[in-house]
Amino acid sequence: MAPLLDLPPSEWSSVLRSGPTGSVLELRAALTVLRAQIRLQEGSRARLHRPIRGPRRVRFPERVAGDMTVRVLFTFDGRVGQARTLSTVSLRDLALCHPTRDYSRRAHQLNKPVAFFSRTVGDLVMCESQHERRFAQLADWAPGVVHIAAQPFTLEFPAGADIDSHTPDFVLLDSSGQVLAVDVKRADEARDEDIVRRHQLITATLARAGIRHVVWTGVPESITDNIADFAAARVPDTVLAERAPTLLEAHHDRITRDELVARAVRLGMREREVLVVLRRLLWDRVFAIDLTRRLDGDSQVYLP
After folding, report:
1. Domains of the chain with bracketed CATH
2. Could you give the percent of the chain with pLDDT greater than 90?
């Protein structure tokens, strides 16, 4: 099973397949509802508003005796669960779901959860480790991705199956309504024979719902460090509209970052302003750099 990033983010759409029920219009409507929910209570999918005491696990409906189907378990409030079949999972479910698992933080736990602010979602996305956070950063910058859901659902298998349940780490929704489920693993862990067999079963099961499944093992940290740096450049759109033409005018072929800054300063911009606007334009893919090395004064800035 090839890691997702055998393909660059610009080609992720080539592995996304149509699947869950619902049209693109229904997906857009669900995302509008999601934005309204976020405005009312930011961070709810990161469990920021969860009470300290009381039930910690989501309550899912009991399986009916004799039911031998694979159930897809969702929660839309982080407390009460609902069950779907593979054929009835909808784009709305995937857009509005909350994490189905709790994010534990124990003294001797190897990986600690972290909340990542996604510019795509406009809210916090929970990650169970720094490795997951690096994937989420990459997904946040991937062209065409309109939503990132963490721990989006749990596959519950019937008695006698090879595994009891599985919760993907993330689901990505594409603007055309295609869906990609992702499990994040270390490279050595992904090669383990038991893990390979498990993920082969998950891939085959999700294919029945029209959902593509991949295992992501990582990229050089310089890539995600650069993307995080770009994402942190918060430039109001009005300011960007005023300043971007100056940077484009200052640009020429094979120019370095420091040379671009100097030319833009000569055109009337302040140095610190140039640096922030440049990072925003890199996030917007107006400019590009070699992501395999950290952005510095010698980095060549080019038009993609």
Report:
1. 4-219 (3.40.1350.10), 235-301 (1.10.10)
2. 78
